[in-house]
Amino acid sequence: MPENRSPHILNTSANLLGLCFIVLTSIKVSKMEDISIIDETTALAIVLFMSSCILSFLAMRSENSGTGSNRMEKFADILFLSGLIVLFLTTMIVTFNIIK
């Protein structure tokens, strides 16, 4: 019987979604609008984490734990990993812009 990872994906995606909103808000508040690549990658991470949250929630709420639920969970997992990669790249961009 496969593990049910949907609650873990939902919890972590929601936390990282909040972090992305804080990053995007701090960019707008600090008037760093000339660095548009940072807010664009942050917006992409927001979309990926939000999609992961929705799919993992739907996988948990699925009435039958058949293939549809497993597919949603796997896709949520892929979106979550993609969001992590985008968030890592955003962090590297922010770090190198601060060093300049």
Supply database-style keywords:
elongated, 100 residues, mainly alpha
Explained architecture:
This protein has one domain (6-21, 35-99). It has 3 helices and no strands. 83% of the residues lie in helices and 0% in strands. By secondary structure, it is mainly alpha-helical. It has helices at residues 6-29, 36-61, 67-99.
Q: Report mean pLDDT, rounded to a whole number.
A: 85
C-alpha termini separation: 51 Å
- Show unreliable segments: none
Can you tell me the number of structural domains? 1
Per DSSP E runs of 2 or more residues, the count of β-strands stands at 0
Q: Which sequence of SSEs, written as H and E, runs from N to C?
A: HHH
CA gyration radius, whole angstroms: 16 Å
What about the largest sheet?
none
The proportion of residues in beta strands is: under 5%
* Helix content estimate: over 70%
Overall shape: it is elongated
Q: What's the tally of helices? A: 3
What class do helices, strands and sheet pairing give? mainly alpha
What would a concise description of this structure say?
The protein is mainly α.
Please describe the topology of this protein:
Elements: H1 6-29, H2 36-61, H3 67-99
Helix pairs in contact: 1-2, 1-3, 2-3
